[in-house]
Amino acid sequence: MSSSYGKNIRVTIFGQSHSPAIGVTIDGLPAGFTIDQAGLRAFLLRRAPGRGEHTTSRREPDEPEFISGLVGETTCGSPVTAIIRNTDARPSDYDTIADIPRPSHADYSAYMKYGESRDARGGGAFSGRMTAPLCVAGGICLQLLKNDGLRIAAHILQIGGVRDRPFDRDDFSEKDFDALAEAEFPVLDADAGIRMLSAIKEARRAGDSLGGIVECVATGVPAGIGDPPFDGMENRLASIIFGIPAVKGVEFGNGFAAAGLRGSENNDAFVIRDGAVRTRTNRHGGILGGVSSGMPLMIRAAFKPTPSISIEQDSVSLSRMEEARLTIPGRHDPCVVPRAVPCVEAAAAIAICDALTEHKSHV
Amino acid sequence: MSSSYGKNIRVTIFGQSHSPAIGVTIDGLPAGFTIDQAGLRAFLLRRAPGRGEHTTSRREPDEPEFISGLVGETTCGSPVTAIIRNTDARPSDYDTIADIPRPSHADYSAYMKYGESRDARGGGAFSGRMTAPLCVAGGICLQLLKNDGLRIAAHILQIGGVRDRPFDRDDFSEKDFDALAEAEFPVLDADAGIRMLSAIKEARRAGDSLGGIVECVATGVPAGIGDPPFDGMENRLASIIFGIPAVKGVEFGNGFAAAGLRGSENNDAFVIRDGAVRTRTNRHGGILGGVSSGMPLMIRAAFKPTPSISIEQDSVSLSRMEEARLTIPGRHDPCVVPRAVPCVEAAAAIAICDALTEHKSHV
Amino acid sequence: MSSSYGKNIRVTIFGQSHSPAIGVTIDGLPAGFTIDQAGLRAFLLRRAPGRGEHTTSRREPDEPEFISGLVGETTCGSPVTAIIRNTDARPSDYDTIADIPRPSHADYSAYMKYGESRDARGGGAFSGRMTAPLCVAGGICLQLLKNDGLRIAAHILQIGGVRDRPFDRDDFSEKDFDALAEAEFPVLDADAGIRMLSAIKEARRAGDSLGGIVECVATGVPAGIGDPPFDGMENRLASIIFGIPAVKGVEFGNGFAAAGLRGSENNDAFVIRDGAVRTRTNRHGGILGGVSSGMPLMIRAAFKPTPSISIEQDSVSLSRMEEARLTIPGRHDPCVVPRAVPCVEAAAAIAICDALTEHKSHV
Amino acid sequence: MSSSYGKNIRVTIFGQSHSPAIGVTIDGLPAGFTIDQAGLRAFLLRRAPGRGEHTTSRREPDEPEFISGLVGETTCGSPVTAIIRNTDARPSDYDTIADIPRPSHADYSAYMKYGESRDARGGGAFSGRMTAPLCVAGGICLQLLKNDGLRIAAHILQIGGVRDRPFDRDDFSEKDFDALAEAEFPVLDADAGIRMLSAIKEARRAGDSLGGIVECVATGVPAGIGDPPFDGMENRLASIIFGIPAVKGVEFGNGFAAAGLRGSENNDAFVIRDGAVRTRTNRHGGILGGVSSGMPLMIRAAFKPTPSISIEQDSVSLSRMEEARLTIPGRHDPCVVPRAVPCVEAAAAIAICDALTEHKSHV
């Protein structure tokens, strides 16, 4: 695998769904930063399963134990490592899939990559559970960025056929960020949220699942960060966001919609606001030529519907090399999108923190 | 900047629109590979400006001179470097934009990153011209991959409001690939192509520009390549494709459309075909859990409309810190999408070549 | 810090002398490799403190707990993480040095790097204790290499003024390797070993310490591995060996002695032996132009004397910025060289394993 | 090959002895730095062949042409690429060695790595000529560092049996650095220099060659740079210095001599001088625990004698797989050490510049 991300802030994820523990090492954090552990736990809780009717019933405390890099709660300059024990594993649930890969899961491709030795239990290292250590790292980066005046928030833009109001402003306030961070179901339009929850409930009843889109904004990002052509802000953000299981598309600003527009409809005029250069609109999503423009970064990530559905599906038996029917046993989310919201924030925070750290080295 | 991409195949791009030359160094190519220079030139010609009415009239031969890494036409194991002289530069065209940044270009963000010292001539290193060395590297990788039975093709899926037929099969033949590579205007539906050309002509007349989408397929990719979570095939491909100027979105398989689907609609059943495991549909775009499944990779990249338009626009004077009107002088494409087609192929080829090389190291 | 080493085999070390745990993540190991845990424990025991009179009396079990990457004892392709709990820490021993840096330790430079937040307890991440996770990773690599027919051994070439016989052959047998691995005090000349032990005992009595040299050989390394100019075998090996605390010099083959020789005295004639190209002598230490020649690799690492001595020394008070006398309290080795022997083997194994893995990717 | 070095300052070398050109790309230089081209040429002249009786008679102007990254003479933030044309190549000189590898050259290991396709002409990419682009990059870094108050100088410490006086102070002045930089034969003790020149002349007459040691000092390096365990100053410096052909050993401070000392003899007491913490002696060579201490860095690199000698030697015919006698035709240095002096300075400058840039990112 390739479990490390970043250059000046370097995050290494390890663990599998049913290994003794999962965890993360973060190298490059500045010394002397005191982690707000309560704040971090609150952030992790947003990703944790079992919060509502719309998620799996597996419950794990997801309490990270920091085993290195801190003196008390403060970073000392050494790599910070946190581990989370896997306590609620029930590997027997996963016996069948070792032979009959679940459609659209990584079971088959993992088998082709690692052979019989792969960890088939619960998806191994391909499990959504691996977003927990990502969120530990991202949660710390969010705190670091906040100290520098950068804020990141995300909401559910779409689930199935229901769409929330998109972010449409460039003057996000602290209050907006806090509200989203505290929301049990983070949407901008409460009514859309209710309809999303209905859709999820309906999909669960049908033994089916739903995809969706998470939209993320980062404010306070200074103009000039990002290192094109290959470590521009878009490359960096996409590179880590595609590390979240189930993401199949990433776009910035107008994104795919820009393909259908004219230059005169997609360009953002420069204006002077309060003595500073800004753009009148933010169709570029805060990134021009891979470099931040000083406007809020606008990021969207598309999640496919959870491939684990209760409906019987066509698959194959790898041992017998013949077609087979599969009914996936066990618990699973009908829709991962609500829990993916903090994951996208975490991923964005890590990417921005890394870019910002590199930026400082050249100033 | 961050001008290198890849791990086992490492590509480093250098140059600016108006520097004496631009070029690329490719480290990690196997020794003993003979470059088909005529084939490479033909490939580069697909990206070259001035091929049709729909592109800028700037004409450069784009003849790469190989200054290292070859003995005759054959790689010797040392890094291969090719340079392309910039002969047709007219820097005087770009005097204004040093002070008044062009909306939605990198002029302003480059200024914020590099200050007065940035190369403002022709967009400097942010110029679309930098895709020429990318295509040199990609063109070589395409030849290498072809030797291993991998083929890559791309077409214009959309320009403005006109849409081509999408790739919809998993049995692409040599003929299909050759046809697309030879097409002057690569679309699957000739009629859509004609309407796209009309749309471009119309946009040019209006002094405006158009965005679009390039769709790319890679066949023959063995199952099991890609290194999740952070160097999975999606991360790798997105990471390099976002290095092509004007790309604002990247998706795989069903991509953003998957967000609106149910699992039962988006999952790909496994089947046995000719004694091998395949999927009945390819909504996953050949990538599951970041690892190739053996099905064709399906990649789409969204390009924003060329920000250079003839219509007068609002901007600011950086020296006077006041708002200013800007009419962009000089030549520019009303639509870069046709020329972007080989760029996406090149980027995909480099990413796949790198992943495949790493894969070999673990077998 | 920069706690990761390697490209295709990537080792990340974490922890401090007195953090809850120390550990290592190894990414890139092939799937399906069964770790010989008993063999690994035996290897780690060679590095462990408290084995003889010549070492510190601190005793830690150094039992690695594998928390990820294995199914049973077998690698599954996910990164392998092992942690070792710090149980025998007595931070109070280290109160003084937080203010008065120990001469020739990293106390002062760590303070200048990380400020007041550094972990001053027991040297923090600069502690020799951090070689334990290095040896976990190296011990696994040694097992992997042995499977491929590569063997690595090391001995104490020098301690203080006493010198062992150097390696002088190119036909090391299994027996030689096993004998060195099992020796309590690994030297080639038993008599030199006895005199070294006397010298250590004498230094301990004097409250002083001794430096030394470890010599390491690697056989079975195929010709052609190593990636010059910057990842040649010498760069790779030096790069990791300088990661072992107290190493101040690294040389290959004749090393520094070559500086005093003529070409006719230092060149190695090529000969044919058993149908294969070999060199008659091995003054080049198995590496030519950064690439392995097929002859055994010959590596020497110089260790400075343990800076912790009981003799009172001159230092400064950082808080008062005035000169101060320091008597270092607590336990410490008079000579780390015996325990450094497996560390050099481990470092060499990791470097060679990484180079070999990269090599495979280009074949 | 692995032709790139560094993280925040990234240097990529390309070319072979007889390719059309050789060159270097430097990514990460700050924008707005004006290269002193005359100063750079003067620096390159110190490495150039043909300066005295003690070097080869091959003469090349080694004039770098900057093809990217500059506007005028000033960096613009894009990667800086300079190429040097190979004009004085006489490949016919090297016909024999394609079949009969020169003892202790890279001919054989390159053949085993790259096979028949390797570039056998003049040693290909293994040629000492590749230090020219290294010196271009290093020469620029030296200028950058000088702006920050860091100076680097080196001298010939030893050639064959003759030894210069070592650096022994910590108060190097501008004058000392300038004197060494301007010296035709850089030694501290002029008399030793005369004896070295005699030794070289004598070796040439005998058709033989000589090795030696270059000693390098860097002053003004702030305390706290370097990223242990794997990117500490020693790792970084060794990693690049071993990229200079013929280097077989690298040591810092007392280096290998420390192995024979006691702690009380090798430790450096901390003292207060002019209100700052210093060490009374500098046996640690300015690096403690991989991190700079604020004292001058002291680096020594051992060079083996030039393997090209006129004396007939034993080798093998690769095509016939039988032993063969070889007389190496053509020109060659009897001693590369004088020309290696600026190469070591260049390598050190690049490593320090990279470490310093990374350091800034964490302040």
3D architecture notes:
The structure is a homotetramer of 363-residue chains. In chain A, 27% of the residues lie in helices and 23% in strands. Chain A is of the alpha+beta class. Chain A has a single domain (4-362), classed as Chorismate synthase, AroC fold, CATH 3.60.150. In chain A, the strands form six sheets. A five-stranded antiparallel beta sheet of chain A has the order 1-2-3-7-4, covered by helices on one side. The two termini of chain A are 34 Å apart. The mean pLDDT of chain A is 93. Chains A and D meet through helix 8 of A and helix 8 of D.
Layout of strands and helices, then pairs:
The structure is a homotetramer of 363-residue chains.
Chain A: E1 4-5, E2 10-15, E3 21-27, H1 37-47, E4 65-68, E5 70-71, E6 74-75, E7 80-85, H2 107-114, H3 131-147, E8 151-159, E9 162-163, H4 174-182, H5 190-205, E10 212-219, H6 233-241, E11 247-252, H7 263-266, E12 270-273, E13 276-279, E14 287-288, E15 291-292, E16 297-303, E17 313-317, E18 322-326, H8 337-360
Antiparallel strand pairs in A: 1-2, 2-3, 3-7, 4-7, 5-6, 8-9, 8-10, 10-16, 11-16, 12-13, 14-15, 17-18
Helix pairs in contact in A: 1-3, 1-8, 3-8, 6-8
Descriptive key words:
homotetramer; 363 residues; alpha+beta; Chorismate synthase, AroC fold; five-stranded antiparallel β-sheet; 18 strands; globular
